[in-house]
Amino acid sequence: MRWAFAVAVVLTFAAEARKKASPEEEALQELDVDKSGKVEQNELESFARSKGMTPDQIHQEFLSLDLNGDGVLEADEIRRTLQASAAADATPSAPSASLGQAAAPAESALQPPKVPNVITIPRSAAVDIHQDLQPEKLTEEAMRQAPAAPASEEGLDVRAEHSAERAVAELFEKKAADALASMREDLANAEKLELSARALRGQAKELETQVNSQVAQAAKAATDSIVQKALRQVKLMSQEVASAEEQAKRHQNLADEAMEQAVSAQSKISEEVRRIKADHVSPMGA
Question: What positions does the domain EF-hand occupy (predicted)?
Fold first, then answer.
């Protein structure tokens, strides 16, 4: 998820960053609503909601970006995230592998610095972050402010943007596939547990049969205490079998529900991937 958000930030501020500031400074200026020099969680939530992210995704995103765990995002943390994302986007032909390799430098920076590198933004350099953050309007604003670029550079920007979007889509699709595989593994474990419960029930019945046979054969010689002890063992084992069966049933129900959710999520994400690829093919064909 960190890479999806980082790619969105890079695409949003790349054109403006070329002419007047570094990407991390532009990102900090755009996200820092109260101009405190830091990005708080509610400020990140405002930006992420405009990108269609859910509250749970936003929370997980903030935790992954807050490398030193102080509850705010600083310029140094944004810079590390953008650098890792840029490294992941450098090889679009293998997006999944690149994203995995880019995670190494970001994860190695998890140790909090002794003195945080906080940048205070002057009000004269602040941007009005209450403007509409829809991607098409941001693109129009960037085109108005950016100087005219050669045709070859525009072509590279378009290809880079398409590659980044494909990388994000494929990353989400891979995560959905991993979740589906995990759900299938849970279902297999539930089935194994149910088989174990059936085996225990068979053993209990066999033991009960043996006990009844022994009681019948030695009824005259056996004492009441021996009979009662054997019956108590049978009762305890029957209770264990019933408990195991109930647990197996609960696991089966949870696994079935999780499987349905995973299949539904994979279907939605696959449909979104096809839509994004179709959108990319249509402009190129035109």
Answer: 25-54
Supply the DSSP string of the chain, one letter for each residue.
-HHHHHHHHHHHHHHHHHHHS-HHHHHHHHH-TT-SSSEEHHHHHHHHHHTT--HHHHHHHHHHH-TT-SSEE-HHHHHHHHHHHHHHHT-TTSHHHHHHHHHHHHHTT-SPPSS--PPPPPGGG---TTS---HHHHHHHHHHHSPP--HHHHHHHHHHHHHHHHHHHHHHHHHHHHHHHHHHHHHHHHHHHHHHHHHHHHHHHHHHHHHHHHHHHTTTTS-HHHHHHHHHHHHHHHHHHHHHHHHHHHHHHHHHHHHHHHHHHHHHHHHHHHHHHHHHHHHHH-
Residue 80 has pLDDT above 70, yes or no: yes
Q: Summarize pLDDT for 273-283 with one digit per residue, the tens.
A: 888 888 776 65
Query: According to the model, what pLDDT value does residue 157 have?
Result: 67
| N-term to C-term CA, the chain | 32
Question: Which token pair is 157?
Answer: 């920007």
Residues 6+ apart with CB under 8 A from 24: 75, 78, 79, 82
**Is 146 a residue whose pLDDT tops 50?**
no
What pLDDT was estimated at residue 125?
Answer: 37
Average pLDDT of 254-259? 88
pTM summary value: 0.25
Integer Cα distance of 198 and 211 in angstroms: 20
Task: For the domain made up of 2-147, give the CATH fold.
Answer: Recoverin; domain 1 (1.10.238)
What pLDDT score does 282 carry? 62
